């Protein structure tokens, strides 16, 4: 893919396609996961809240895929990029593809992701790239709400009943090992960070730690030691769950090649 | 919708002939009835049953379409479908709230749905087998629902009418969304067109059944009409639906699966073949392919959500206690 | 069903300059969740810029059986309305 981007255009940064695709994949895959809840939430009010968050993420993914496709300049569109790549070509963070688990895991995953993306987009509103600026201006508000919504739930579940507290602790044990990857730079994104187009992920650690620390303190949760942090999404090295997600998501596009929907 | 003080209250009214006549006079004068107003027990019961069924239909209705959210074929379709199914949840929520003004709680209504005591629209007991089903459901099932719901915006019971106004406003995109999907398929590859025709074949008759039994066999109709809970008969609405839908199918180049369908110049509407009411009653009584699955899915969501709801309540108590302790200092 | 999640009434200000208007109800365990749910349920189409949530049980309502004594006595106090007074047209708008 890097090669495609390199030969695609002259003006834009050669790594832009890959870097934008990474972001798009994060949002699509996590949005897809959230959409799986629709109709199955613990209460009707959450049956509305979860799709709202999913729609925010899918909306951002669409803008980013569209931008990536135009960067590439090979006639591919947002759906080609979203639906017609193979597993190893998806660049999303591992945490985005983790199965929903129970409501505690879903809310914690959302908090982890949104707490990094809120400061990310906040920094990106000053990007010299107009599309990134546009996405950032919208997404920063959406992520602020996701932090609040998911954060309030993590607090309630952590400091609710014995059962909910145990489930919340299990969610932390399950998901915390994927959080290191939130702050890693890929080759593509590193190049754009250097050009000042995208925010540096390393700078997000402080704000993220503060938010998680505040929520965990209220929730009665502890930030665990992670002996074996998991990473690899940016290089297409995923867990086994992603392939199943893609098989489902891509079914129609694969079964009827070239059709319009 | 704040008559919630009434939950569990004794709604009994002494129903003298004078009281009933006064009530009927209010209805006849197109006055709206509001939650705390005195009303005949039968009126209250009819509304609780109807609004409850309506709410359950929205909630169970999330499942067949939800079945395709993760397989929607494009990002645009995925977002639209997700927003649509989310709307159904919202509509269920508004309707439960309307019913709650009559002295039942959402929990009670949910228990009745899960125990099989309360009914919901039978259409949702059919499976969604292809992407075309999503289009046809939006076009026909939402189309039929809208036909049913528009008169309900003028229903005599205020909270129900207000909920319906909001619902109808939001639902206006649902049918268009569905029709656009079917249109895209009908103009697509031969395989896509076949998919669309197959979906129409499977959903046409169940959609007609959505208006309920023929007027001759409908047990609740007359009194509901007098109380202006209902404004048109089942057969009147069904006829309106057929007359509106057949030309839409023709436009798509799809054929309606009814060999007896003919335009009747004299009545200014279509004549149609006989509806298989045995199938209708079989599905109502639990014999549809998906009846068991739908309730099982709802029950699973409800049971597996219990610990979340309990945790939120437990936390709320702790918060309140902490606040009180702080205030006492 | 041990205990039920409380009911809240939702009021929304459609835009600044207008007052909050009752739009519906929802269930939530506490006021923070109620506000979030109100946002997610009742403002999906840009319906508002401000939300109030009030526990339903905190509302005291007038009794419809007393509506006659509450509201009908004002019907004949027509001198409270401008049209009660006769001012010649020449005076102009007043």
TrEMBL record, chain B:
<keyword id="KW-0560">Oxidoreductase</keyword>
<dbReference type="Pfam" id="PF05138">
    <property type="entry name" value="PaaA_PaaC"/>
</dbReference>
<dbReference type="GO" id="GO:0005829">
    <property type="term" value="C:cytosol"/>
</dbReference>
<dbReference type="InterPro" id="IPR011881">
    <property type="entry name" value="PaaA"/>
</dbReference>
<dbReference type="GO" id="GO:0010124">
    <property type="term" value="P:phenylacetate catabolic process"/>
</dbReference>
<dbReference type="GO" id="GO:0097266">
    <property type="term" value="F:phenylacetyl-CoA 1,2-epoxidase activity"/>
</dbReference>
<dbReference type="InterPro" id="IPR009078">
    <property type="entry name" value="Ferritin-like_SF"/>
</dbReference>
<protein>
    <submittedName>
        <fullName>1,2-phenylacetyl-CoA epoxidase subunit A</fullName>
        <ecNumber>1.14.13.149</ecNumber>
    </submittedName>
</protein>
<dbReference type="InterPro" id="IPR007814">
    <property type="entry name" value="PaaA_PaaC"/>
</dbReference>
<dbReference type="InterPro" id="IPR052703">
    <property type="entry name" value="Aromatic_CoA_ox/epox"/>
</dbReference>
<dbReference type="InterPro" id="IPR012347">
    <property type="entry name" value="Ferritin-like"/>
</dbReference>
TrEMBL record, chain C:
<dbReference type="InterPro" id="IPR038693">
    <property type="entry name" value="PaaB_sf"/>
</dbReference>
<dbReference type="InterPro" id="IPR009359">
    <property type="entry name" value="PaaB"/>
</dbReference>
<protein>
    <submittedName>
        <fullName>1,2-phenylacetyl-CoA epoxidase subunit B</fullName>
        <ecNumber>1.14.13.149</ecNumber>
    </submittedName>
</protein>
<dbReference type="GO" id="GO:0097266">
    <property type="term" value="F:phenylacetyl-CoA 1,2-epoxidase activity"/>
</dbReference>
<dbReference type="Pfam" id="PF06243">
    <property type="entry name" value="PaaB"/>
</dbReference>
<keyword id="KW-0560">Oxidoreductase</keyword>
